Amino acid sequence: MSEKVYKKFSISRAFVYALLAIASLLSIFPLYWMFVMATNHNSVINKVPPAILPGPQLVTNFTNVLNTIDFFGAIWNSLLVATITTIGTLFICSLAGFAFAKLRFKGKEVLFIAILVTMMIPPQLGLIPQYIIITKLGWLNDLRAIIVPGVIDAFGIFWMRQYIKSNVPDELVEAAKIDGCSTFRIYWNITVPVIVPAFATLAIIKFMYMWNDFLWPLVVLREQSSFTIQVALRGLIDNYVRDNGMILSGTFWATVPLIIVFLLLNRLFISSLTEGAVKS
Predict the structure, then answer these.
(1) How does pLDDT run along the chain (280 residues), one tens digit per residue?
(2) What is the pTM for the complete model shown?
(3) Structural domains in the chain?
(4) b/e string for 142-176 if b means 16 or more Cβ within 10 A?
(5) CA angle at residue 16 from 10 to 18, to 5 degrees?
């Protein structure tokens, strides 16, 4: 490589790195700003210009959160709901994705298209019939009202189907059938080890969705002991006095579990995106 070409390549790479650094800072800034607001008094937050450095009110603001709502109880409920729903979604959606990708049965394409159509329907349209069903089951104010409907995920089925179709060779499946493997054993022993990155991606998406879900839990949960964290945080907003430091303190600490989950699954998440997982 000539010196001129090498310099041009170095400049291009430096430009790309600079853009990535700027994009990273812009992405991290809202979280940093939330932390700054969570550590300052309400009077400091309302100043113009506002504070840009963390203040001394971190413990005080979080103590006010604990005195206002059952924060750790709500965190536990959200963790329970998000974890169980995510595990159930991974199992059911991977089974369905395997069936659509590798099995042959009548009406497969029509059924798959029907599942894709449900992704275009706003979830708010199903709120009333879903509420009626939950009421008849006697699940109001019960975490089952959130967990059971959340296990089935049309996007999860689509994602798993695309990943399995692209990364599990048909020849490997046929060879396993010739060796006498059952359908479930082919799924469990051959398909599952291959689709671990897809599991990580879907787990992050589903966990974040269930953790941040507000409307449906607000409808079916009535007592504070059963509140998820997003519903509980609503209790920090007073109609007359608005303590922004306390509100943002609760919001910041409620975001920490999501950051931990993403960091744990980050490598597998990136791996799934770099393997051409969405090829048809």
Answers:
(1) 556 655 666 777 888 888 989 998 998 898 999 999 999 888 888 787 777 888 899 999 999 999 999 999 999 999 999 999 999 999 999 999 999 999 988 989 999 999 999 988 888 888 999 999 999 999 999 999 999 999 989 999 999 999 999 889 989 899 988 888 899 999 999 999 999 889 988 999 999 999 999 999 999 998 888 999 999 999 888 767 788 889 999 999 999 998 888 888 777 766 665 554 444 4
(2) 0.86
(3) 61-273 (1.10.3720.10)
(4) bbebbbbbbbbbbbbbbbbbbbbbbbbeeeebeeb
(5) 100
